[in-house]
Amino acid sequence: MRLFLFLITFSFVFPLFSQNTNVGLKIPDYKNSISLELGGVSGWYGLHYDRRLYKSNNEKTLLLGDLGYSYLTQNDFKNQSFTLQLVMDFKSRTNDNISYFIGVCGNYFVRDFSQYVQRGNLSYYSNDSKGSAFLTGKIGFNLQITNRFYGSLSVVYIPKNERIYEFIDYLKKDNTQSDSILDYVRFSRLWFGMRIGYKF
Fold first, then answer.
1. CA atoms within 13 A on the CB side of 131
2. Whose CA, among 59, 86, 152, 175, lies 20 to 30 Å from 97?
3. Domain limits for position 84
4. Which residues, in sequence order, are bridge partners of residue 131?
C-alpha cells in the first residue's frame, strides 16, 4: 500500500520537473534502452530492453518493442515473469521532454513451488510448477531527464481471469470473481509501474 501511495503522489509531482525544461533537450538518435522497473507489467520488479522499431518523419511518434524479465522468491515460491510489449510513444512537439505512451503487453508468468515435507519417518520435497499467460494494456508517460537518462510512470490493467490466479496472488491483489461488471473496472485491477532507463 505504501508503494502505491508513493507512486500516486509521484505521478502528480513528476510532470512538474518539466516546467524548468521547456526549451527541451537535443536528444541524439538512440535506438536502444535498458531500464529497471518497479511494479509494471512484470510484477514487483523487472529488467527491460527496448528497441525502437519505427520513427515518424517529424520524430514525434515512435514504435518500440520491449523485452522484460523478473525473478523474485516469496516463501516457498520462485516467481519468474517474461514480458513482450509493443509500445507507441508520442509527443506534441519534437523537442518536448515529456512523451506519452500506450502499449499492448504480453506476460508469461511461471511459479515454481518447493516445500520440505515431514510425515513421521518419511521426509521429502514437494515440487510443482505452473505457468500462465495473459495479454493486457498500459498507458503512461516518460520524462527525459538528460540526453541518455529517462524516467517513466505507467498504469497497467490486470485482467479478470481465473487462469492467472498465481500472478495475481504474486501481486498480493484481490482476485474477486463474480458476474458483476464492476469486477472488470474496479480500481484494484490497476497496477502501477515506475522505471528509470538509459538510452544508447
1. 7
2. 86
3. 2-12+32-199
4. 110
What are the tens digits of pLDDT across the range 22-53?
Answer: 455 666 789 999 999 999 999 999 999 999 99
pLDDT of residue 19: 46
Please indicate, yes or no, if residue 94 is contained in any of the structural domains: yes
Q: What is the per-residue burial (b if ≥16 Cβ within 10 Å, else e) of 36-67?
A: ebbbbbbbbbbebebebeeeeeeeeebebebe
Q: What is the DSSP letter of 27?
A: -
For residue 125, give the C-alpha cell: 520435497
Q: What is the CATH number of the domain that holds 96?
A: 2.40.160.20
Calpha distance 54→74 (Å, rounded): 39
Classify residue 193: in a domain, yes or no. yes
Question: Which three-class secondary structure string do you get for 85-101?
Answer: EEEEEECCCCCCCEEEE
Please state whether beta strands 98-119 and 77-90 pair in parallel, antiparallel, or not at all (unpaired): antiparallel
Which of 15, 23, 24, 94 is CA-nearest to residue 61? 94
Residue 26 counted as domain residue: no
